[in-house]
Design a protein that fits this description.
single chain; alpha+beta; Beta-Lactamase; Helix Hairpins; 4 domains; 5-stranded antiparallel β-sheet; 14 helices; about 60% helix; rod-shaped
Amino acid sequence: MLHLRPVRILIGLCGVLVVTFLGYKVVPVNATTVGFAYLLVILVLATMWGFLEAALASILATLVFNFFFLPPVGTFTIADPQNWVALSSFLATSLIASRLSAKARARASEAVERQQDLERLYSFSRAMLQIEAGVPFATQLLERLVQVFDLQAGVLYERDSGDFSRVGIESSEGIQNTLRSVALHGGTSPQEEPPFVIVAVSRGSEPVASMALRGATMPVGVLQGIANLVAIGLERARAQDLAQQIEAARQSEQLRTTLIDAMAHEFKTPLTLIRAATTSLLANPEIPTANRTEQLAIADEEAKHLQELIDDAIEMARLDTAHIEIHRELASLEETLREVLASMQTEIDERPIQIDLNGALPPIPFDKRLLKLAIRQLLDNALKYTPADTPVRLGAYMKDGVMTVDVTDRGKGIPDEEQKRIFERFYRSPSVKGQIPGSGLGLSIADGIVRAHNGELTVSSHPGQTTFQITLPVLRQEVA
């Protein structure tokens, strides 16, 4: 704005000359009226532009006031001593009024700037709370800082990790050593080339980072406020990372414990039958061939069952990761459903199972092992919650390029508020905890497997009936 000052001074002097012309030539008035007019012009100049413009206008107004309005008119001579007092008072009043008005204007401007700084700090704090996961926190934090405060560029150095985050600048080699020093010892460091301001980011009295800002013309207090908000943001991100690590460790330990308990429970039945068959064979060496064959068949069948249980347990442990890798193969869904029922004969026992296959099911590509595991989880869940004399329905059909598998039980139903959470890992309804055995893993694993096939697992429930439905989109060329 300095390049406009000569123009402002010229406008102020012209304003004084206009008042002089009007008061002397157009509408002749007395000296007192002209003096007040001069004072009004000077106050306007001080309010609008500052003291220098008003002071120069005051001096010019004093001179023309003396020349045109104080006798003898037309000279700078003052005949009456009282006019000396009047002229001096006019000059002093105009200068003092100009100074006071300029101070008030500066204070008002400063208050507006402080309000804008506070609004920017508040906007930055809100933007900091809206940072999303995925992109590095420090980079997002710096982007929002540069955007809110309209900076040219910024660099953030984190002392613990040694990482540099940059926005608006490709390389920070020229200031890296300074950033490290400030992050180690604290304080601020203005840089001339390039024009950066470097400030420490401290947690309490201990510096934890430093940042370099280009285009920062804010006061030191605002700069320190930014540093404090950045420190809070970094501490919040660190706390969130720590909480996620703790939660991951807790879930991993819970998964390990759950799997061990499930394995111990599931393995007991086939191991007991195998042990009974081998004990019988060893205790009776001369057992008839027919009976021996029957015992060996039982042992072989339960050994296969045990192998499937072990494979399922390993698969469940592997599915603890966020990404499930599937290996598709062209297979018959009907055959897969019957294999699931055959592998669950022990759990099914004498329970009625209603199989509903609506038409012929063409072979489609899917991961047979994983889909069997998902259907097994749904069927096991239905058997737990269905009364012993009530059938469980297992259905499958294909329509409009979508393969659907339904598992329906006749249990008490799932309340609406719980249907949104049943696919969460380890979630179990408070109404069944301690009454029906379970780990809270089965539905979440089934949901993950179906999603990995680009399908969807949904639930619809009301008192007396609950249906879990798997839908798998199938392309026409896959069916062909």
